Fold this sequence. Notes:
The longest helix has 14 residues, at 102-115. The protein has a single domain, classed as Alpha-Beta Complex (Cyclic Phosphodiesterase, Chain: A). Strands 3-7-6-5 form a four-stranded antiparallel sheet, with helices on one face. Strands 1-2-4 form a three-stranded antiparallel sheet. 24% of the residues lie in helices and 28% in strands. The protein is α+β, with helices and mostly antiparallel strands.
Amino acid sequence: MTEWRSFLREGYTRYSGILMMKPGPVIITQIQEMQETLPANGKRIKEEDLHITLIHQNILNVFKEEMKDIELPDPPPIKIEPRIFQRKSPGKESWAVRIINQGELKDYVRRVMELLGSQNTNPEPERVFHITVGNLTGNPYDSVQ
């Protein structure tokens, strides 16, 4: 998808090893308001780092060439829950907002995998789509996986 098209809709998808969906200004504003409620030890994830991981890089590694050539379909709108939730793992803690329209995003992933010619159109059936809004460092790579 060309970058100018990203300004015409609420959110857009981008391939950068992972397939991610970037939220548009309305969702960014809602997230920034929610970031105000992070606990004292929580650091905000910067606006430019906010995203939904649609397909992990481990799955897309075998489709690198195909990803260069396909035109991604228009993504569904992002609909978020009005509150954040906490995620913990050993040595890590992060806060995220759940995406309400999980089924639409799963369908989008299915369509992309079909375009890539994959036999597995549901590569991560356990994935729960979310946007991480904060963690202990503010570095998005330090979030709970």
